[in-house]
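QA checklist item 7 of 12: single-chain prediction sanity check.
[x] sequence parsed
[x] length recorded as 363
[x] structure emitted
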Amino acid sequence: MKKILALAFLVFSWSFGSVGSLAAQDLVITNARIIVGNGNVIDQGSIVIRGGRIASVAAGRADATGVQTIDARSMSAMPGFIDGHRHINTGPNEKEQMQKLLEAGYTTILSGGGPAEGNLTLKDHIEKGLIQGPRIIPSGTVNLANNTPEKARAEVQRLAGLGIKFIGEMALTPKPAPTAKELENLRAIVDESKKAGVWIQIHAVSPQAMMAAVEAGVPKLVHTPHFGWLSFEDAKKVVAAGVKQLFDGDGRGQEAGYKAVNARTSWDAGVIYGYGTDTGYLPKAGLDHELKSLNLMFSMQDIIKLMGPNTASYIEMSNQLGTLEAGKLADIVLLGGNPLDGYWNLLNTKLVIKGGVIVSDQR
């Protein structure tokens, strides 16, 4: 009987141990260079984490005893990385893929599109502790080109019923301009999204498509135009409409050149401009690629703002993520070196904490 009970205990531990390991820890990070994310830097400070949230961020030593201490000497603490548009889904390799995202420093991912059901399954696997992974925000898609306004509205409501809050991967024809049918369906989707309480995101990769989306009332733009130059006047219209936008460094040749310069135009006009990779390949290689592209036009202070508070704003989680401040979720990346010295230090991940849990330790 004792052997049976012992075996049952082992089976229970093996089956549910991963769930237990996801319990938030009380931690103290000391001796860290703290890149707060709001423009402030603490040269040597401490972060106290309790119950999965940041309890305090301050210079010097923390007044906390009886909790696990992480000595971050020679390391920098930053908010966990957020990807505002990455292609992910459930599948046989999801465990490995999600772990690589964590190891690169990503703690939150807004899915780049459908299938919505697969996004929801992946989110469920992570939340139940079946696998480790970033915080997943699932999304779905509605077809613009081959639909009717009535069917498009119905699909918005269906996705909302599944629990989807972001609808993306909808593209407008870039050249010569979006079609009348696309715009008719888009206006219907935008109108229905307000009733359903979901966010609409549009792929607009030319200035013409971008401004057509803005005029249709779209609140979020996944891309920066890479077919033609964006005027400063049009960028100011984006600001006036309250539209948020993402940068992704994908592209070669002239496309990449348009994108980098248009990114700076949007930024200088005052667009809330965030970070999204629009990729599905290796996370660290993708991060390297994106940072090299951003480095063409942005300072490190700009990049930290873009990747942190601006992307948190894009995913509508500014009150939870994007900066290292008391009350926010304890999503923290410890990096070797000082990211303000160069983007390459953002590739030197040493420790990743998501919601107060150490999910990657590469020290």
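[x] summary fact logged: The longest helix spans residues 2-20.
[ ] second reviewer sign-off
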